[in-house]
From TrEMBL:
Highest taxon above the source species: Archaea
UniProt domain Tetrapyrrole methylase: residue ranges: 3-174
Protein name as annotated: Precorrin-6B methylase 1
Single GO MF descriptor: protein methyltransferase activity
Associated pathway: Cofactor biosynthesis; adenosylcobalamin biosynthesis
Keyword S-adenosyl-L-methionine: yes
GO biological process, alphabetically ordered: cobalamin biosynthetic process; methylation
PANTHER family to which the protein is assigned, alphabetical: COBALT-PRECORRIN-6B C(15)-METHYLTRANSFERASE (DECARBOXYLATING), COBALT-PRECORRIN-7 C(5)-METHYLTRANSFERASE
Pfam family, one: TP_methylase
Keywords: Cobalamin biosynthesis, Methyltransferase, S-adenosyl-L-methionine, Transferase
Amino acid sequence: MKIVGVGIAPGMMTEKAIKTIKQTKNILGSKRAIKIAEKHIPPDSNCKTIQNYRKLNQQPPNTAILSTGDPMLSGLGYLDGEVINGISSLQYACAKLKIKQTEVIPISFHGRKRNYNKLQKQLEINNKIFLITDPDLNIQKLTQKIKQTNTPSQIIILNKLGYPDEKITKGTTQNPPKPTTKLYSILIKPTLNHTQNQPKNK
């Protein structure tokens, strides 16, 4: 079985991912993943939408599981089998904003388990945070949690990255931007320099 990263939008797949899909007859993926990869899926393949994620490891060896973005960034990379990488939202966002990936800490806020404590600890040491979100995230609550760290921060909402209607909006903890779509991620960038916290020499 192969877990194939299809990227975050059409045109974000590697040559290896495209070749793998074209050579595979048994394909599974979410509706969005299939839509991204559709022009590379053979017309005679058995391509189906995933109905039960718990049974994915029970698929035949000649199956390709499509994973949006990169499988190892909060994707399906936990499954048994070879992982073929794709372009992730983190990679794309860092390129767009000209921020080094090594300066960013990714945290998943996708689903019910949202580790605000981890988020706050990273902000307190002045780290940039990339949040992988879902439509249920409460932006007001997120902003309040950031304010509790006393770390002035820029908040950047990354809407529909890679799509023609992509939109990037910037704000602050005092005036946070709002997502314009259900498909978005967030980059939180502390604006306080380390030197501001250090005592002056007398």
